[in-house]
Amino acid sequence: MYNRTSFVGTVFAAAVAFSAPASAQAVAVNPNAIRLACSTSAAACQAAVRAAIAALRAAGLTTAAFNAQLGVIAGIAVRASAGLSAAERVAFASVLQDLAAASTNAAQAQTFASLASQFASGATNIDLVAVAAALSAS
Prior knowledge:
This protein has one domain. The protein has eight helices and no strands. The chain has helices at residues 5-17, 31-38, 42-58, 63-80, 86-91, 93-102, 106-120, 128-137. The longest helix has 18 residues, at 63-80. It starts with a helix and ends with a helix.
């Protein structure tokens, strides 16, 4: 299962949060709402993430800041989804697909898509540390 998810989720969020220099732009995205929704169900998580993406788009962020915020959202969502049932974790892949579609950074989008594929396949041993390292390098 995701026995390292709590730790690596934090690493994942931190790595993507600081991967872009423009990440200092303030945005009104509520991380607690995302965390709560993503710990409830994949559908609730997807609704919260889509609302956050819309808020980011409306905020007029730089491309780098927008993508950095997507990474933060992904980290929060992945970490919060750790307690979901196996079926819900498979459905959670759609959240990551939405993030991949929203990203304007090709490497980040590919990483989100790859992670989505792992969730969709029902993988229980996802190496989030490698994902965080890949995102922080892009």
